[in-house]
Amino acid sequence: MTPAADPLVAVRGLSVTFPDRTGDVRAVRDVDYDLARGEVLGIVGESGSGKSAAALAVMGLLPAGARVEGSVRLDGEELIGLEDRALSRLRGRRIAMVFQDPLSALTPVYRIGQQVAEAVQAHNRLSRDEARSRAVELLELVGIAGARERAGAFPHELSGGMRQRVMIAMAIANDPDVLIADEPTTALDVTIQAQVLEVLRTAREATGAAMIVITHDLGVVAGFADRVAVMYAGRLVEQGGVDDVYERPRMPYTMGLLGSIPRVDESGRRPLVPIEGAPPSPAHLPPGCPFAPRCPLVFERCHEEEPALAAVGGRPQLAACHRAAEIEAGGLAPEEVYEVRSSAPAPGAERRNGRPQVLRTEDLVKHHPLLRGAVFKRQVGTVRAVDGISLTVGEGETLGLVGESGCGKTTALLEILELTRPQGGRVVVLGRDTAELDARERRALRREVQVVFQDPLASLDPRLPVSDVLAEPLRTHGVARERVEERVRELVRLVGLEHQHLSRYPQHFSGGQRQRIAIARALALEPKLVVLDEPVSALDVSIRAGVVNLLEELRERLGLSYLFVAHDLSVVRHVSDRVAVMYLGRLVEVGDVDRLYGGPAHPYTQALLSAIPVPDPRKERTRARILLPGDLPSPAEVPGGCRFHTRCPKFAALDAERRRRCLEEEPELRAVGPGQEAACHYAERLAVV
Q: Which of 178, 235, 507, 533 is the most buried (most CB within 10 A)?
């Protein structure tokens, strides 16, 4: 590789091996890269590719049994082989890390202020009062409101976004030269993710630190990094400037990753690129190129010789592929390399008109009493989880239900799936009011409504082989034995699995395969409505693309209707015909997918869509973010009037008279154009993607 002039961090031949009874696990293999002063390097790849292990090796935080080889130089000083005491003097002062799970990284029995102050005192001679004062300043710097009061809180009393801000405050406490952020936005809502990324930008400006951002979200890297490095099976397989790699990827794995991402800024049903198969085990790597078993351009040499990371096309871009020059000359796109068929177009409004409804809710309500007292319980409040929502799903249609965690999406699903009389309002499924069903009718209707949950491993019985997992709903509903066996074979073929998979258990499959099994089980009884609760959120982007394509194909082939619940609005745009946006138990906007994404009218929807990163560096550098202050209020303390006014950027710009209406009157959904409604007194369509 071409070394940077006077790099701040120089990594050469970095390898990490974990001893194991079945053989050495080679988690990181011969990694080389430079990090210049003030530069941001994004490291991306699927789970298990070695990203985090490489970062922990740089920090000297690997377990004692790990074998680390190669060289890591920080401003000329060698870190590999340093004693722990010497490394401890560097950690926090010269090089610091923001960990993926702040709840695990923070000590649960110490207050936030104490922990930040401890990070300050570790490398500075300050009194206790001076350190605590500095801790409050740091919490204010990372945007924690009421920093002095929050400093007295324990980690479990803060939201996920606040905990991540605390981790950033601790990492920048001593103005380090290098800041490593390991999956800093994983499992956060898009609005909180945007806040955290803005805090990282602020931290970078305040400290002047170079950064390494480790993530699986290529949209985050597009707008944040200067260079990107792609890892696979413990190695770097492509590296270069973010514009070069995103616009002209020259390694089929990188092409697959970029092609697998649904785009929030594109209408229509662009086919996603699934990378078939799973990454190899680092303990049993195949001969030759580790990506060969999954690569659409594989040829004989790939199985015999692992390609070196070499320059492509005379640019400072490196790729580890024997066919990189051919890809460069041919200018191939991911869809051409992976030969993906075009998806079916989304059914327009004219196609949906006149179709029967498979689901309708009217003013659906679900409140939970908030009780206090150990022996004698008394109600001290009400959690308004679902507070009067009305939605419909037509035959053959997909309705996307979106919103931040805690907005009431899952509670609404559970109320629908109960098929009983709701606490308030009505639920009508396939023309039947669930309040009027007796036990026999309810059992019969359950055949027509099935669900796919977020975590397939938790929803599949680990004691049963796949054949029994798929047969169980059929047997429960009295299907004849000979038909059960035939239907199980049909289901396996339907979701793209093999007959030999029937004898294996769920834990023996990859995440994508387990979700296919869960989908097959949901389709066993040939339902008309399938409820999908975050069905792809726990999957790598490459595997997620295959599951999304499968859901689209099944809907078209079987005439299914979907109620699709997700927090990833890019996926929602790709699969949905209409979208309903929830906030604190209420619907705030509903509309046809292209109209809503093309011009959201409610300030909350505008903030959600503006927060979604786009895997296009040029677009990301010019997009404006609408950052919402704070976290979602508690559903036990819903603000009066418009429940969004406490975070609304539009409310902050109104005059006193117009604000009064937001404070006193809760807005109802009203039309803001054809096929679009918004619950805002001052709704106005705005292009944000």
A: 235
